[in-house]
Amino acid sequence: MALHISSAGGFQHGGWHRRYGAGSGVTKLIAEARGFLLGRRTYEIFAGYWPNAPAAQEIADSLNTKPKHVASRTLTGALEWQNSSVLPGALPDAVVALREEGGGDLLVIGSTVLVRSLIQHGLVDEFRLIIDPVLVGGGKRIFPDDGAFRPLRLVDHEVTSTGTIIATYAPA
User: Fold this and answer.
1) pLDDT (tens digit, 9 = 90+) per residue, 6-41?
2) How far is CA 111 from CA 33, 36, 37, 56, in A?
3) Strand runs (DSSP E) across the chain, as ranges?
4) Residue 69 and residue 84: Cα distance in Å, rounded?
5) Alpha carbons 46 and 38: distance in angstroms, whole number
6) Residues 6+ apart with CB under 8 A from 57
7) Cα torsion angle, 98, 79, 33, 45, sign
8) Cα 153 to the chain's mean position, in Å?
9) Residue 114: is its pLDDT beyond 50?
10) Which residues contact 87 (CB under 8 A, 6 or more apart)?
């Protein structure tokens, strides 16, 4: 859920994740996903970078060719980035419909506002958290500040050569 490409929203440390490059773990997550669920801001950042990214970047092909479903109240009509579309109707209904299609996991990258909404609607099957060995001192809140207690259970984990931990949790 954390692949920050630029300094969105005035956050001075945007892009910090790239230097820790979770490597094969992130590449595998992206390669195995059937598609992506993105918030508008993340979509705009990615659409401005990935279509023209160097082919040597391992995840470029997956990001460019797989379906991208964008949650937005402001974007309308056809989207320019290949295989991208705005989710129709209310977010919970649209995500449930995507779930019912089956065929593999939809991966959310970044998109903190979207993630909070998905959590609040009980629409997250797994959290794949990428923990880099750095304290950033600011940034966007990922989890809802609603006081709810949501127990999780560890499903899997990987420690990369850079010290990044990819932890997979499911609701308990």
Assistant:
1) 344 555 666 666 676 656 677 888 889 999 999 999
2) 16, 11, 9, 25
3) 35-39, 68-71, 84-86, 106-108, 127-131, 152-159, 165-171
4) 6
5) 9
6) none
7) negative
8) 20
9) yes
10) 69, 70, 71, 72, 94, 95, 98
Tokens for 126, please give them: 């797994």
Q: Does the domain made of 8-171 have the CATH classification 3.40.430.10?
A: yes
d(CA 169, CA 159): 15
How many residues are there in the chain?
A: 172
Q: Which of 95, 106, 109, 117 is nearest to 42 (CA)?
A: 109
- Other C-beta atoms closer than 10 Å to the C-beta of 132 total 19
> Which residue has tokens 């490059």?
21
Residue pair 167/128 in contact (Cβ under 8 Å)? The answer is yes
Domains of the chain by residue range: 8-171
6: burial class by Cβ within 10 Å (0-12, 13-18, 19+)? middle
Which residues are registered as beta bridge partners of 158?
A: 166
